[in-house]
Amino acid sequence: MDAIRVDRLRKSYGKDAVALKNVTLSVGEGELFFLLGASGCGKTTLLRTIAGLDKPDSGSVYFGDRNVTDVPTHKREAAMMFQSYALWPHMTVGENVAFGLEERGVDGDELVDRTLEALKGVRLEGYEDRKIDQLSGGQQQRVALARALVVRPKCLLLDEPLSNLDAQLRVEMREEIRRIVKENGLTAVYVTHDQEEALSVADKIAVINKGRVAQVGTPEEIYREPQSRYVASFMGEVNFLSGKVAWVVKETDEGYVVRVITNAGEIMEGKVTELGWKPQVGESVVAALRPEVVRFDESGDVINQIQGEIIQHVYQGATIQYLMKSEDGIYLQVAVMNPGKLRKAGDKVTVIAKQQDVVILRP
Amino acid sequence: MNNRRATIITVLVTLFFGVFFLYPVFGILKVAFSGDDGFTWDYFFTVFGNPNYLEGLWNAFTLGIVSTLVTFLIALPLALASYRWVFPGKVWLSVLILAPLVLPPFVGAVGVKHILGVQGALNAFLIDFGIMSETSPTDWLGKNKFWGVVMMNALHLYPILFMNVIAALNKLDPAMEQAAQNLGASPWKRFRKITVPLCMPGIFAGAAIVFIWSFTELGVPLVFDYTVVAPVQIYNGIKDLSDNPTPYALVSVMLIISLLVFAVSKLLLGENNLGSSTRPKARYMQKTLIGFKGWLISGIFLLVFLIAAVPHFGVIFLSVSGDWYGTILPDDMTLSHYGDGLGHPVVVGSIKNSLIYSLGATFLNVVLGLAIAWVIVRSTIRGRTLIDGLMMLPLAVPGLVLAFGYRALSEGSFSWLVNSAGDPIFLLILAYAMRRLPFVVRAAVAGLEQSDPVLEEAAMTLGASPRRTFMRIGLPLIGSSLAAGAILAFAFAMLEVSDSLILAQQAEHFPITKAIYSLLSMLGNGHEVAAALGVWAMAFLAVAIIGAYVLLGRKGGGVFRL
User: How many CB pairs under 8 A join A and B?
Assistant: First the structure.
């Protein structure tokens, strides 16, 4: 049974601004599910619709097998953590956290105990009498988390919970959120625009683009086997080479592999990832390969081989990022880990990628 | 769901507003413009054909213009100084110069009469020092009634403009001026090219209010016997209301002029938000003036306060004077007027009446204001900007006009508002409430705009119902703004003159202002008892306004920013 399911959700603001176009998704019990997308793609609207703060124009939201589409927010038991934290400035830390319990009729010792326990859970013991404006950004973030968790919600909804923190704290807190979600066995939906954040802590990611679900999958699937040009480029740096299918190499249940002659004449071979799409000979496609799958190799294999010269390099410590230009004028990013030899601008080079690292996509 | 509720509120409030505000106003226009054969300009032209009315209108108009200019001269430098500099005693001086707000100007005028009159304190002072001959003292007010009214108006109204300008300046993003400075503009050029243009809407909105108030001021001209002025002519014309449409036409002329001024200030300058951000990133860095310069500015503020407080001192001295005639200070001091006042049936009743009327009006305002503000800020229904504009209309319609409309209707379609004993309590509560609604709406809107709706959503995701969310989160967060708006509405209701003079007919229903006015014509110690009552009102309102100021803090001017 899915913990949360949204079915053909549509939502528009006014005539032209469509936020959600027919979105269908399922979130499994105990899953940490990410909604990833650029700003304005509709991911926050989707989260707010799940929370009951926005009403869809059509479509349904299910919690388990219960249709909650018309259930008001306060009866959904979906606690939400807001991007701005939305901590109430006229209450103390303790009062903020206790609020949801009070609304559920919890009182007396239980109220105090559970509040303190929740604060302890986010490592804020002894902060219950502080005012909100006496806390740092990281502490506020944890109060907001405690406030949402203390009511033991059916699901936890997180709207860019880390975007107001500095880079280092962000890395720490995302691990912390994952730990808490897993320890409590919660189902969580997490909205972010940060692909690194999504890749590093998600069980599953849904990439949202212009109000539609572009792809759903595990972080590895999303990163290594993007099913569209949009997902490929959104999830990190990627080189695209345009060309036409020359030969279908393999057509089995495990995959559909084609050989492509690029516009510049290189021979690229890779796997078609888009479901149900079988490009035929002569069809225009792009070959996508990430900078880190490309390596310098002059062994002579002509498949997935590109020749050119180094234009510039960027030293990044653990890696060196080269920009090279192929003989026929295509620019490529090449990332090399633990570089032994530094190549200079103007050096002639040959690079190669493995077939399983090349993805063939619609142009 | 949200919008359905918003629509219901809008319809109800608009209906209410239509019945108790627009209907009386249109009622006046209807009588003024309908003759035996339908629409007619006859009465309208009668007004302009009558040299007496024409002179009265002209006097009222010039009173409005000149009062506004003088108000400007006082308020603008003070506001700029307060915005730019820190000087000794600034916090207290900023509160002190708001003092004029606590005294109805016509009561102050009584005090001034005892200072500037033929046998007043000033002449006594001049005679004592041999500057003026004892046998032919100057009649300062008799000769200069016009300027007397201008002075009272300006001294009463400058705080409103002052707060308006301060609020406009505070809304200005300091980066605007800094950018000009960075590009090499001199301070004077910065002021002329950046600050003034960007603050213009705020300044003009304030000026429009000041104009309308002084254009339609009734109490002060009455006290100064300045009879050839339109509001007084209307007041006197009420006596033969029934069969004469000319007073209606005169009221209509005043209404149209007021509406025009208001419309011009709104439309021409618009609701522009040039150069302002709701929350400027940086606060303007005020310069601390030390030494002579600082004390000079403090001195100017103190001087303005002292001049503005002359009427107050006049009233206070009058209230404790046994005999104040031809001397600088009263000859002997006595508290007996306070005692006489408390023994006087009109006085005691009037305090009770004023409290009931004002509290009733304030309650109505808070309920209506909160509901409207919620619709304006939180809902997305179409036409909510229209509602916003509609709610500001009472500022453009002079109190005199509305009072006149209510008075005319009290014998017709509003007769059910006056109970069988002739008690106009509901009439007065409604009249008070309608005119002060804009203040409460503004305050509630400001409060709601500053509180992020996410704070309410957070409560709902934690299981709080909409009602509980409002009680525990929404209301506490806007509470201080709302309370401040309510206090101001209450204070202005207590000070209300036009409605009170026109609508309360029998002594047992008089509010404080009408009681004071009627005491003035009482023989014996009428002036002194009236002054004693004025002092009570003053003390009471001082507490209310300081309370509002403290609650709102720096946002104080926002309530007057309309």
Answer: 71
Distance from A298 to chain B by nearest Cα, in Å? 57
CB of B131 within 8 A of CB of B138? no
Contact B457 A82 (CB under 8 A): yes
For chain B, say whether A79 makes contact (Cβ under 8 Å): yes
How many Å from the N-terminal Cα to the C-terminal Cα in chain B? 31
Which residue from B174, B171, B206 is spatially nearest to B190, judged by alpha carbons?
B174
- Mean pLDDT of the B59-88 span: 90
ipTM above 0.85, yes or no: no
For chain B, give the mean pLDDT.
Answer: 80
Q: Which of B558, B559, B554 is nearest to B95 (CA)?
A: B554
Q: Is A205 on the interface with B (CB under 8 A)?
A: no
CA distance B447 to chain A (A): 14
Binning pLDDT at 50, 70 and 90, where does residue A216 land? very high
Residue with the bigger pLDDT between B427 and A222: it is A222
Contact B455 A51 (CB under 8 A): no
Considering the entire predicted model, what is its pTM? Answer: 0.74
- Cross-strand pairs, A209: A212
Question: Nearest residue of A to residue B479 by CA position?
Answer: A90
User: How far is residue B504 from each of residues B234, B244, B406, B497, measured CA to CA in Å?
Assistant: 16, 21, 11, 11
Q: How far is B41 from chain A (nearest CA, A)?
A: 47
DSSP-assigned states of every residue in B474-506: IHHHHHHHHHHHHHHHHHHHHH--HHHHHH--S
CB B561 within 8 A of CB B202: yes
Does domain B49-333 match CATH 1.10.3720.10? yes
Residue B381 touches partner A, C-beta closer than 8 Å: no
B354 touches chain A (CB under 8 A): no
Contacts of A72 in chain B (CB under 8 A): 1, 460, 465-466
- Is B1-31+335-562 a domain of CATH 1.20.1420.30? no
Asked whether A282 and A260 are in contact (CB, 8 A), the reply is no
The full 3-state SS of chain A, as one line of letters, equals CEEEEEEEEEEEECCCEEEEEEEEEEEECCCEEEEECCCCCCHHHHHHHHHCCCCCCEEEEEECCEECCCCCHHHCCEEEECCCCCCCCCCEHHHHHHHHHHHCCCCHHHHHHHHHHHHHHCCCCCCCCCEHHHCCHHHHHHHHHHHHHCCCCCEEEEECCCCCCCHHHHHHHHHHHHHHHHHCCCEEEEEECCHHHHHHHCCEEEEEECCEEEEEECHHHHHHCCCCHHHHHHCCCCEEEEEEEEEEEEECCCCEEEEEEECCCCEEEEEECCCCCCCCCCCEEEEEECHHHCEECCCCCCECEEEEEEEEEEECCCEEEEEEEECCCCEEEEEEECCCCCCCCCCEEEEECCHHHCEEECC
The alpha-carbon radius of gyration of chain A (Å, integer) is 24
- Reduce the DSSP state of residue B429 to 3 states and report it: helix
Residue-wise pLDDT for B220-275, tens only, equals 888 888 888 888 888 887 766 566 777 888 888 888 888 888 888 777 665 544 44
Q: What share of chain B in percent tops pLDDT 90?
A: 8
Do the Cβ atoms of A77 and B469 come within 8 Å?
no
Give chain A positions within 8 Å (CB) of B463. Answer: 74-75, 77, 100, 103-104, 151
Chain B residues near residue A88 by CB distance under 8 angstroms: 455, 458-459, 473, 477
Length of chain B, please?
562
Domain boundaries of chain B, sorted by first residue? 1-31+335-562, 49-333
Contact call for residues B451 and B278 (beta carbons, < 8 A):
no
Identical fold, B1-31+335-562 and B49-333: yes
Is residue B284 pLDDT above 70, yes or no?
Answer: no
Read off the tokens for B189.
Answer: 């050029």
